[in-house]
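Quick board copy: two proteins, each given as sequence then tokens.
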Amino acid sequence: MNDELYDDADRERLVPEPPKRVVAPTRAPFERDRARVVHAAASRRLAAKTQVVGPQSDDFVRNRLTHSLEVAQIARDLARALGCHPDIAETAALAHDLGHPPFGHNGEAVLDELAADCGGFEGNAQTLRILTRLEAKTFDADGLSVGLNLTRATLDACTKYPWRRPAEGGKFGVYADDLPVFSWMRQGAPVRRQCVEAQVMDLADDVAYSVHDVEDGVVAGSIDLLWLDDAGRRREVWQTVRGWYLPDAGDDVLDAAWRQLRDQRSWPSLSWDGSRRSMAALKNLTSDLIGRFCGAAQAANGPAPVVRFAADLTVPDATLLEIAVLKGVAAHFVMQSGERRAIMAQQRDLVAELVGVLDERPDLMGREFVDDHAEARDDAARRRVVIDQVASLTDASATAWHTRLCS
């Protein structure tokens, strides 16, 4: 570990805490941060939240928790290889999806519309809110929750988009309501720049997302990588890549990236048939792809240590293209399927109706949110509390709440 490369400001917590001697030797601050995220209720809820396909649909498919565990493993190995702190990178990876609501990005889009008058909704901003407010562990001198009270370095690494919502829209990492703790966390940080540990988490997320969603799609029968051998089908997938990820990428550029992937020794030559041999071949492909993408990353730091803002992660454009190709394959064949679109429409209606009912009957929320609602200063703050409650639900509990409250 390279704890000595971090100073007192990096290890500072919003509310000072004495060291705890649970076992010998005393755990380091960043180890304590990791333990707090692992034991958080918000982490357990991820097991019943959609990654791409609903967790109730199949025993094999990934949910938000298994995805986060895989991102954490990739982030830790990548951090160790690059020279940054593996505990910080792993904790950021474990926490990166805590703010996602039920039904994945579909639920996120609905809540963003419904929260338009109180600053919108973004899963990454919600993660910061959970870590610094909603997941209660520590309180300040005024009796207000400061969440898990993580160190500044760890909390910053968990922040994928360290800025407020842009006027033109797009991703962001903090609501106006949470600016005080955000400002404390970003003391001394360059404006809108991720720390290197957050960059490691971000790449690990992209790698896991691109590779594992394709793996899930293959096993579910929604994807056959041999389909891409057909030029016409590739054109359709490239349209999805442009629509979702790379609007300026031409067919020739995406074809070149696909050929690089296809030329890998482990790229399938036969369609998936569910046999153990197929399982082994698919697992070898996912391992090779993860190694390929992570192996291409470098730390641009010169003589400086790979710590916070002393370094940046660099990833070749060719690697980013290959990752986008795989993400586009999953988006095209799984997320844009007709069956999937019908399910997503039902989910959007469910979330909207649930928010409407709780707006009218805030007393039906959990005790902590009832208290927050009673203390809210205006309608916007009260709507934020309702959004917090609905966002905290899992796919199953959101469905159960809707059945109980909206039938």
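And the next:
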Amino acid sequence: MNTRLSVNVNAVAVLRNRRDLPWPSVTGLSRIALEAGAKGITVHPRPDERHIRRRDVWDLADMIRKDFPGKELCLEGFPDNRFLTLCEEVKPDQTLFVPDDPSQQTSDHGWDFEASDALLRSSIDVIKRSGIKMSLFVDPDPEQPAKAAAFGADRIEIYTGPYGACHSDPALAATRLAEVSATAKAAREAGLDVNAGHDLTPDNLPALMKEVPFIREVSIGHGFIADALIYGFAESVRRFQRAMGEI
């Protein structure tokens, strides 16, 4: 199974929102990524709309359904009532719950399942009733996938930030990669599909894919946009796909 690339376009929206102008276009650049071979688009609409706006979510959903059948939209966010209602209305292909405080710059840790038990059970029930694939964000810890499975998740997304942060320390990177690998294998044993995301690049993806070839999807935002500033959106899709072994 080839791993699929989902491009997170939050950073495109950050740049657009610096001005009261419609460019760079979130949907336009997402279209380029999908035409180049990306299998999906991921967005994280926050309550303050500091990057992705609700309108963007609808525009992306409409574009993908009309022009890219078979490709996916993933909505990630904290499962408050506003986010759950948006998911019910838009019906993305996949929803990822992340334990973010609204003021956080980015997702930087997985769920504390014991502390969030009631919230997750009620929120997952809403998503399941809507027929949406359900994923939970977890730390690279092999004890976490079984807990996610107990809540009824279809997938986990492993937080790969600690691995990506070791770009100048090969020994520590190997340790962090082993943690991701152990977590992925535990998820497979628990019957869950495995996604991964955060600070992945064409440089660190090959080792990850060699160690965990059954990862279903990687969601890449910051590293992708940094690469695209040099190579362009379409070529960056191909660069990441080559690093993943998808092409």
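Board note added afterward: DSSP finds eleven helices and eight strands in the chain.
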